[in-house]
């Protein structure tokens, strides 16, 4: 690369300098993806349908009727994608295992070809010096299990535990970091109450049942991973806890904000980290005729000791009292928006992390997702064809600075995974919303680095060398 071209690349010191970030030299730098969003090969090598295959093939469910049949074709391009991670010099890669690829139908023995794929992925990563961080469940429930009740059925928690044992039995000699669930709030609320995610159900009591069964599944899976892995496994869970602000100082607004905090944060963190559900939330759920289906001993299982806590953050919530008793989300017109359109509020990330540290005896925290969708079609390209996605670069820089501020306030945050390694199938939004630090041309499957990837890479290197 010539000096001229090099100088055309973004200077990592533009915006937030690596030194100003004040992150430790052993901070973990990574990028994240999930199986259904990138793999494609939907009907190959014994894989059966997940709820996302069914949902995305339901006309009108997904923008543009997009689906994950091919996605980024990562199943066939995995070595090329791992080479990208290597080129960027990232320490870790967070991916998820496709349940219906590993255990078609969600019951019974493993599908050898399915596990072989993850075996190759893990070896490829380790061969490149990249630590594999495996998420067991990133939303792709086998359709057969949904037909038997899905997460509203208690049995699904035990099925997740069996799947965990199959995965850890095969990969647990090399995968050290395991994340049981990704964002159980989304699985339960978007999937079973709001219906905008698979399986597309709109029954509030089923969503509440799903919350408990997901958390029970987490506890059971954590136990089985630890028992099945031949190498000491570090087990965690990834939440997307709401960071709630009251819209005003009136008692009604404060009460609404407290209620939203209960439904979006404490309902998940309390059982896992404190071993109990918050009573104000359980009372509210009982009042709404949607009790949590807790049985004796469940909370002991759910509150497994954790080696780390995964936190995903994209935006915060400002809440006011609604006309009915429901809290109401109010837009903050002072904040810029991403293409989702989600409000950009880095300080919310600092406040979220500080709040977790204040309220819980939390294990070390890793930011397991953070990133932004922008319309990259308006970006210029540099001499080497790389997209100059300055808004995404600024988003990452501002949020890493927010992480550094949380650390300065005593929060033990040890790493950060950008969402996402590459543009992919963004659930209900399809391929129209691009979160990648690597651009994907979905017609040709060509990958192209964006400047946000170069910024992350250089910042990681500069921080290590501090
Ligand atoms: C999170 C999901 C992830 C991705 C981002 C944008 O809620 O975990 O798969 O879609 O949002």
Could you explain the architecture of this structure?
- With 466 residues, this protein is an alpha/beta fold.
- It has a single domain (3-464), classed as Glycosidases (TIM Barrel, Alpha-Beta Barrel).
- It is 42% helix and 14% strand.
- It has helices spanning 3-8, 18-21, 35-38, 51-56, 74-88, 99-102, 112-127, 143-147, 155-171, 184-194, 204-228, 251-274, 279-287, 298-302, 346-359, 390-408, 451-464; strands spanning 28-32, 92-96, 131-137, 177-182, 234-239, 244-246, 308-312, 317-321, 327-329, 365-369, 413-419, 438-441, 446-449.
- The strands form three sheets. The chain has an eight-stranded parallel beta barrel, surrounded by six helices. Strands 6-8-9 form a three-stranded mixed sheet, covered by helices on one side.
- A hairpin with a 5-residue loop joins strand 8 and strand 9.
- The protein is globular.
- The two termini are 25 Å apart.
- The model is unreliable at 1-15 (pLDDT under 50).
How do you describe this structure in short?
The chain has 466 residues and is an alpha/beta fold.
Gyration radius over CA: 21 Å
Report the principal-axis shape.
Answer: globular
Q: What percent of residues adopt helix (DSSP H or I)? A: 40-55%
Q: Numbering strands along the chain, what is their spatial order in the largest sheet?
A: 1-2-3-4-5-7-10-11
Distance linking N and C termini: 25 Å
- Average pLDDT, rounded to a whole number, is 95
Low-confidence stretches: 1-15
Strand content: 5-15%
Main beta sheet: 8 strands, parallel, barrel
Tell me the domain tally: 1
CATH fold-level label = TIM Barrel
Number of helices: 17
Broad structural category: alpha/beta
């Amino acid at each position: 690369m010539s000096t001229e071209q090099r100088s055309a690349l973004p200077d990592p010191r533009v915006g937030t300098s690596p030194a100003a970030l004040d992150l430790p030299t052993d901070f973990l730098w990574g990028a994240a993806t999930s199986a259904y969003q990138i793999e494609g090969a939907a009907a190959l090598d014994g894989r059966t349908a997940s709820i996302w295959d069914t949902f995305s093939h339901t006309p009108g469910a997904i923008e543009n009727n997009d689906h994950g049949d091919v996605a980024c074709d990562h199943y066939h391009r995995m070595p090329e994608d791992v080479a990208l991670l290597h080129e960027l010099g990232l320490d870790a890669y967070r991916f998820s295992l496709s349940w219906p690829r590993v255990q078609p139908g969600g019951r019974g023995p493993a599908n050898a070809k399915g596990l072989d794929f993850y075996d190759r992925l893990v070896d490829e990563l380790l061969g490149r010096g990249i630590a594999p961080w495996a998420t067991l469940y990133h939303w792709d429930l086998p359709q057969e299990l949904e037909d038997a009740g899905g997460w509203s059925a208690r049995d699904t928690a035990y099925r997740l535990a069996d799947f965990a044992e199959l995965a850890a039995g095969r990969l647990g000699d090399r995968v050290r970091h395991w994340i049981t669930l990704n964002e159980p709030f989304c699985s339960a609320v978007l999937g079973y109450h709001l219906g905008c995610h698979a399986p597309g159900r709109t029954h509030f009591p089923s969503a509440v049942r799903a919350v408990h069964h997901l958390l029970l599944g987490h506890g059971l899976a954590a136990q089985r991973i630890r028992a099945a892995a031949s190498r000491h496994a570090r087990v965690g869970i990834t939440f997307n806890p709401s960071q709630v602000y009251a819209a005003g100082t009136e008692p009604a607004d404060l009460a609404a904000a407290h209620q939203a905090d209960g439904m979006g944060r404490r309902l998940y963190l309390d059982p896992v980290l404190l071993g109990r559900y918050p009573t104000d939330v359980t009372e509210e759920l009982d009042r709404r005729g949607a009790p949590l289906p807790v049985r004796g001993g469940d909370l002991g299982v759910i509150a497994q000791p954790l080696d780390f806590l995964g936190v995903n953050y994209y935006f915060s919530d400002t809440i006011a009292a609604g006309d009915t008793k429901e809290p109401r989300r109010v837009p903050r017109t002072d904040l810029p928006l991403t293409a989702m359109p989600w409000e950009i509020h880095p300080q919310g990330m600092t406040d979220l992390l500080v709040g977790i540290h204040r309220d819980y005896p939390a294990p070390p925290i890793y930011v397991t997702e953070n990133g932004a969708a922008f319309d990259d079609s308006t970006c210029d390209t540099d001499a080497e064809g790389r997209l100059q996605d300055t808004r995404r670069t600024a988003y990452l820089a501002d949020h890493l600075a927010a992480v550094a501020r949380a650390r300065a306030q005593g929060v033990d945050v040890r790493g950060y995974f950008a969402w996402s390694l590459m543009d992919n199938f963004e659930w209900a939004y399809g391929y129209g919303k691009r979160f990648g630090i690597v651009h994907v041309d979905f017609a040709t499957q060509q990958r192209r680095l964006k400047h946000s990837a170069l910024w992350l890479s250089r910042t990681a290197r500069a921080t290590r060398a501090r």
